[in-house]
Specification:
alpha/beta, Helicase, Ruva Protein, domain 3, Zinc Finger, Delta Prime, domain 3, five-stranded parallel β-sheet, 12 strands
Amino acid sequence: MAYKVLSLKWRPQSFKDVVGQEHITQTLINAFKQDRIAQGYIFTGPRGVGKTTTARILAMAMNADGGPTSEFDPKSEISREISDGRSIDVIEIDGASNRGIEEIRNLREQIKFSPMNSTYKVIIIDEVHMLTNQAFNALLRTLEEPPEHGKFIFATTDIHKVPATIISRCQRFDFNRISIDVIRNRISHIIKSEGIDCDAESTYLIAKKADGSMRDALSILDQSISYCGDKITYEQLVKALGIIDQELYFKFTRSIRNKDYQNMILVLSAFSKYGVPASEVLIGIQEHIRNLIYSDCFKENNPIEINDEQLKLFKAEMLNWDRRDLFRLNQIIIDVSAVIRKSDDPYLLLEMTALKLLEMDKSIYIDQLLSDKDFLENKNSPQIPDGVDKKNENEDKNQGVEERARDKKKSNSESGNIDKNADSGLENDGENTLDQKVNFDNINSKWEQVLDSINRMRPSVGSIIEDFVPSMMKDDLLVLETKTGQGFNEKVLERGIPIIEKEIENMFDMKIKVKFITNDIEKNKPESETDNNPKSKQADDKVFDKIVDLFDGEIIH
């Protein structure tokens, strides 16, 4: 007797043999009990989940000896004919190779004739989405009002390609992807019946590789038996199927955590030896990261479809990781996955990405950073090298400030700018306190740093105020004077005041007010350029300000 592959040998022959689709089989069983058999059915779902098999079982139940029933004898002559595809009353065609209008017309003619040996004449069209639009149109009328003895059963993996007019005339059943546990239980039963010795880790690996398809699982099992013989081991199975060992993914994440370049290069070399595409390696890494995160989220009833031993390994590894770092790691992998298929050398891109991940810093919460007193002190105060007398340094600094203040005052007097204090609303008595002088000198010396920080936050504001420098300081008021002497829009400058005040507070730990001294271009405009309607001008200014704020804009003259 010729060898029969496991997917055919163990093909379900009754509703109770169909696993993983209980919501469908139970509905069909109840339909037979209530005598509510529809004229058309459409089965949709992934490959290898039982659509065509269920269609045949449904045809057997319709044509059972003694009338339609869900509890038929699968070994009866009629059932065997339908199962083997020999029944003249059950016509099964492939929509991919019989997709034209002529084939559908032939089916319409055949269904008109009464069944020879059965109760119903059943037409099963597999991959029905492959039919042409003309073929679908030819099917509509017959499908809606078939003869009393005629039934239609359609199966498809792409339901969205089937016209809504066809779907609306059928009862739709959505087949689910079969879970790993269900596939494992079915495989274990088949292995035991076939007299094969297989460990639990191997059955899990086969079920996982099947990706929700029972037919694929049985095909993989067939291949595994051919390679391993009567005893299937995990080590042999990994070699036979070309599956990357899970331990290699653990080495990958450990190398990143330990910043171990040497070990990472060895891991990447091992990946390439498997011959698996780089894109699939990235998918495996993503799945590994997901399992790490999930293992830490659930104490009981973990949704990860892995055995208990592997779950312990993930939990142990997760103790050394921060969840935020894994999220960042996963995002980088996602970004690379989007372009790796188009890369001329995918493995080179994978290797460079992996080495880049070794330089990834650990995550830290902002509140942790702000609570770090050492960090704040180092950020807000200048560092004085060891061995320098701080008292003497301050004395020298204050003396230098006094000298620079006298020089600046003298220079202002000579240049005719002595009336700026009146402009600013200040009364300059020439007697600033030592603290004010120190503060002013400190701000003046680090003014470029203030401008750089503002440019990073608000480039539009920074580009305007970069023409201004500190001029003087009285109490808590800092006066900024333009270097070029050109005019600026006063409203634009006012937008920058709170930003400057905030940045100075952050950098120097002092609260001050800021005032600009400038030639206002609005005041210098000729009378003819101003709007004669004050209300209109006010309204335009409000709209203008909103637009500038909304788009973070600037005024260019």
